[in-house]
Amino acid sequence: MRVLLDLPSVSTVADTSAGVTRTLELVIAANRRLVRAGLPWLYRSGVRFRAEPWAGQIEQFCDASVVLRRGWGDCAQLCAWRVAELRESGKRARLHVYCRVTPQARLFHVQVRHPSSTRYPLGWIEDPSRMLES
Fold first, then answer.
1. CB count, 10 Å around CB of 129?
2. Separation in Å, CA 73 to CA 5, 8, 92
3. pTM for the full model?
4. Is 125:113 a contact under the CB 8 Å cutoff?
5. In this structure, is the dihedral angle defined by the CA atoms of residues 65, 71, 73 and 78, taken in order, positive or negative?
6. Which residues contact residue 120 at a Cβ distance below 8 angstroms, ignoring those fewer than 6 apart?
7. pLDDT tens digit string along 73-96?
8. Are 40 and 96 in contact (CB under 8 A)?
């Protein structure tokens, strides 16, 4: 599964964040099916983080099977995989999207937000990109 989002056509931070989140929820649904079918867990897969060369112009969203096959993914692709596996294991993880709109590009970074718990009353943020940097 691959989906393209033309970021320059989106005008505000809120619209960029909402569009990215909605699109990634579709990828998460596809990834959940892959996890149930035996996809390896992200941190055991050998996949590394790599920013897409066209970042800020067109964003390519793809499911975990594409990421696994090519051996790398950007922040959005890695987080969609991680959220899918967490949700499949019963955790209420969700996406956390930071956006910045400039005249030249729409930039965003995606992380995983874990729910609050006794140990972390405000929840906590996990960044697969940082953990899988080459």
1. 21
2. 16, 21, 23
3. 0.86
4. yes
5. positive
6. 114
7. 999 999 999 999 999 999 999 999
8. no
